[in-house]
Amino acid sequence: MLIERGVARLLPCIVVCSLLVGCKGSPHEAAKAKLYPVSGEVMAKNVSAQEITLRAGDVPGFMAAMTMDYSLPNAADLEELQPGDRIAAQIAVDPADPSHYWIEDVTITAEVARKEPPALNPPHELAVGDPVPDVPLVDQDNRTFRIKDFKGKAVLLTFIYTRCPIPTFCPLISSHFSRIHDALKRDPDIYSHSELVSISLDPKYDTPPVMRKYGLAYLDGAQGDFRTWTFATTSPDELKALADAFGLEYFTDGNQINHTMSTVLIAKDGRVAQVWEGTDWRWEEVLGATKAAAEK
Question: Fewest beta carbons less than 10 Å away: which of 23, 53, 106, 243?
């Protein structure tokens, strides 16, 4: 997720596409359908099945008061409706097949309170020259370490999580790190004085074995390269302390994480040397800065 300094622009790490082409119950059939006005309370919704469960009053000419499932082909209506909403709508029935019916022309008449995402207050960020917090981390081999253990090395650190579904966010950053790692490896002197660290924002799911598997995919299976590129996790409390220090904002939304992006270069003395926010930095630029820090 992308952040300009001082202004966060959070995008959900979830992309949902809905394709309704020629499906039964689609709106283009409404012209030939028989319509029955209905009102009631939404009891549940099933996005994957494109259905709502509606507790409705009597529908004259169609049925008595009843709670039942209805197809709701309109994706926008389905997304907006929440259990507890009261609605007025039309039940559309296919005259050629009375067993085929669906809901359309939905109007919310009483809306249940919506949950607002937690407010994100910009945390205090470390400035260039500040020491990095000394929090315990656990690597892909379940070994505990701290950033101070890399003293004498230039450390390039970023935050990702393995289930990130957006190619232009965590996967892009990890691909940049892979290119940087390969370039550093071609210069043994620089390579021995540099370290890459990827820290998970999803410690509950991203256990050391999960991080190891994820790391191997970007290391082309070279297990020995974990010596210079560490894939780490930590406790939720330690993660928050570290993320706050680097100006990173994040919160959980289902099994996804909404978050900003921060990549940090730490000098050999354990102090912040440079910070790149967002995902639009060039890996060649960051490589050059990492090499320069490793040579000092």
Answer: 23
Ranges 40-54, 124-138, 163-177, most confident: 163-177
pLDDT in tens, 12-28: 343 333 333 333 444 44
Q: How far apart are CA 244 and CA 227, in angstroms?
A: 27
User: Domains in the chain, ordered, with CATH?
Assistant: 27-110 (2.40.50.320), 117-295 (3.40.30.10)
Vertex 154 angle, CA 148 and 160, to 5° = 80
Query: Kind and range of the H or E element at 53?
Result: strand 51-56
Strand partners, 294: none
CA distances in angstroms from 28 to 22, 95, 103, listed in the order given:
8, 14, 13
pLDDT digits (tens, 9 = 90+) for 207-224: 999 999 999 999 998 999
- Please tell me the pTM assigned to this model: 0.60
